Amino acid sequence: MLKSKTRRRVAVKTAAIAAAGAGVLFGAVPAVASMYADPNPVSYACTLGGVSSPSATYIFQMDLSGPTAAATNSPLVATWKIAQPATGLTVTPTAPAPAGARVVIDAEVQIDASPSPVLALPSELRSLAATAAPPAAGQPITAPPLLVTVTPSATGVVAFQPGPFTLYLDPGTGTNEAELLDCGVPLNSAEASAAALRVTVVTGSPSTSTSPSPSATTSPSPSATTSPSATPKPTVTVTQTKTSEPEKPPSDGQIDETPNGGAATGGGGDAGPDARMIMLSGVLMVAFAGIGGMVLRRRTAGRG
Q1: Closest CA to 96 of 131, 132, 145, 133
Q2: What average pLDDT does this structure show over 14-40?
Q3: Where are the alpha helices (DSSP H) in the chain?
Q4: Which of 65, 127, 223, 303 is least crowded, fewest Cβ atoms below 10 Å from its Cβ?
């Protein structure tokens, strides 16, 4: 089906930004590919130069390539290249393109997964866009290759089938793009199915996969995290401050306090009242006894 001008303008801006950021050059194709299927002919009804009618039928060589197998939970990248028909159509610029101009392709690819859990969307018509520098005057324009990336989450089969596409020239001046070629859905579904790329998804990391190796992201070096010497031991510093005790005044030769418990310090324990008081009391008692005895003796002598 034909896409609107507005949609194509959004696609070309997005594609131009992506191309500038990634440094994509005309004809640059990433290294995919342990399996390269021969291009397959697919018939399209196309219009030229932005004219809506009449359309003509052209046979394009569709080349969808990718790995023979992919691993679950790893990116699967497929490449879609569209070659101009061998006969009947050649898109060739007759004058040099303005500075900053880009060749843009806006396309749709049908993605199907079997069984359904292989992809989050088991069936999807995904929009793609790519840009390239225009060729020199007199050289045929080749559509830039398109990249399709999915991440399967279960084992099964993922199929990529070519769909409609539009080729146009963006002058890079902010004005409307010049449509070169607009092709609708393939006229023959059997041809499109024969041109499809089918990739088997297996568990783990297949040796024939051309997507980024899972071991590159899931096997970090153990020495980076488990080596005891990698983490220095902390140094603990203990600072202790000693406070000097106040100096006692000089002793007068007497014991200020005798420790309890009879410690062997040369002094006895606390003895209570002074012993001199006890001795004085005893002397007084003897004196009073003597005086009392003399008084009684005198009284006895007076009576006799």
Answers
A1: 133
A2: 42
A3: 5-22, 189-194, 215-218, 223-226, 275-303
A4: 303
